[in-house]
## 1
Amino acid sequence: MKITVLNGSPRKMNTTFMVDAFVKGAEEAGHTVEVIQVGKMKIAGCLACEYCHGKGEGQCVQKDDMEKVIPALQDCDMLVFASPIYYFGMTAQISAAIQRMYSVLKPAKATKAAILLSSLSPNVYVGAFGTYKGILGFTGIEDAGIFTAKDPENSTEDLAKTIYDFAKGL
Ligand SMILES: Cc1cc2nc3c(=O)[nH]c(=O)nc-3n(C[C@H](O)[C@H](O)[C@H](O)COP(=O)(O)O)c2cc1C
């Protein structure tokens, strides 16, 4: 399988720890994984101009880093969302990337998805879960796994093993 991971963290810490465990397991299982660091990219919010659904024929009128994300979204069999929790949701950076998917509406081939979320506190995932489950409902993509880590679970070997085992079993 080709797997695209969108990492919404702007720094290389807890979320990236989860992503690394995922990548290790998935690659060992023979999958090809592309991690896109959307947390460090410049992706503007959607302008709702509808250029993409008219004259643009699927292309966004805005020329920014989303141009690097769309091909990986369109070409993957599995899509993984990874993000720290910022005020009960995913980061603004990954949220912008998700909303800019509007130009193509749905990833063309993906049939599976997973989500990796890191937070400080417990029970703070409502916004991120809502977005994730909404995307799955809209696209028909099947959930393969939901992983959350709060302090002090972040960056522990137990967490890495759980995610690694999941990815290796894909
Ligand atoms: C702007 C901002 C907002 C945050 N909001 C929350 C929150 O609502 N709930 C929570 O538990 N943690 C919150 N956190 C903490 C992060 O989710 C947590 O530290 C996470 O492990 C960071 O992941 P990272 O190391 O990949 O950046 C927030 C952190 C930042 C910087």
## 2
Amino acid sequence: MSKLTRYNFDEIINREKTNSVKYDLRSKLFGKADVIPMWVADMDFKTPDFIVEAIRKRTEHEIFGYTFRSEGFCNSIINWIQKRHGWTIEKEWISFSPGVVPALNILVQSLTKPGDKIIVQPPVYFPFFGAVENNGRKMVENQLKLVNGRYEIDFEHLESVIDTDVKMLLFCSPHNPCSRVWTKEELEKIGDICLKNNILIVSDEIHSDLVFKPNKHFPTASISKQISDITITCIAPSKTFNLAGLHTSAVICRNKELLKKYNKFLEDFHLSGGNIFGFEALEAAYNQGDGWLNQLLEYLQSNINFVDDYLQQNIPKIKLIKPEATFLLWLDFRELKLTNKEIKKLLIEKAGVALFDGRIFGKGGEGFQRMNIGCPKEVLEKVLINLKVEFTK
Ligand SMILES: Cc1ncc(COP(=O)(O)O)c(C=O)c1O
């Protein structure tokens, strides 16, 4: 396909009966099979043609034996990161993971010891909590602060909770669900604090391709050579190109010792092999994905503007935290002065809309809901109309 291909993000595709977590688990999770699913971070857009074609082509060989990562896998990552984020990385820095969450868990296990303290910054993507606590480490919370409608890192509090037992920071950049793209200055500050206190940074950058202008994503490890020595970066094409079911992501680390420890775990668990179709998809996405991604970003931005205008005009008590990145909107319901039970009833039973209750994201999540707007505008319109009916009575 030429660069001029226009993609149709308005197309509504029936995803029912495809073993889709988003669609086929609705009865189980929400007690209602027909709620409009706006919760899990999985978009409703078709996978771009060049990715489908790469997978199709590989199926034609009709043998799917054990595989390994090709030069092409690493080169596609190197080129993509250079082109999209201006960070120069080398082949030797790249490893694999069957998902970013598995990588977070392996990094915690391989680079810290039971009982060590690990910092998280809630409200944050909740598997961060599991990566600390399920692995017998102690969680230290450095809650983000909401200042004039925008989230900030509480650096003073961060320094106050650090002691010699703190060994790692699980850093979400850009941040889900608070939708911040951290500035270079903020990243420098984080880096300096971690360098000063011998704290490793695990930088989950899964949302780094989904950044809205004029914001710019800076990979944490690109800030300085010293910071890159203590940082392990997790990326994936799964959010950007909607490929979560292919379980293919990458771990990048310049520090050989750290990467060696990570790789040992990966190999001990027999996880380094990877998935043939995931590799094909990642390569096609990173080699050919610019045009599609640029159009996706435009579509998401117009969805965001649509939600923002609609809420201001029709449901002003629900406030949108202005998103700088991701297709996940963080909505402040606090002004409605409703209980959690009341909100749940209005959302699920009355409006027929499934959002993610902010409480799952930990401290600071109470009173908020996360809404996935990676869907055709027609669906979004229906959701907003339903919300207006129930939340403005
Ligand atoms: C910050 C963040 N990290 C990781 C993931 C999931 O990664 P994976 O599906 O590769 O395990 C998500 C999914 O929403 C996410 O928001």
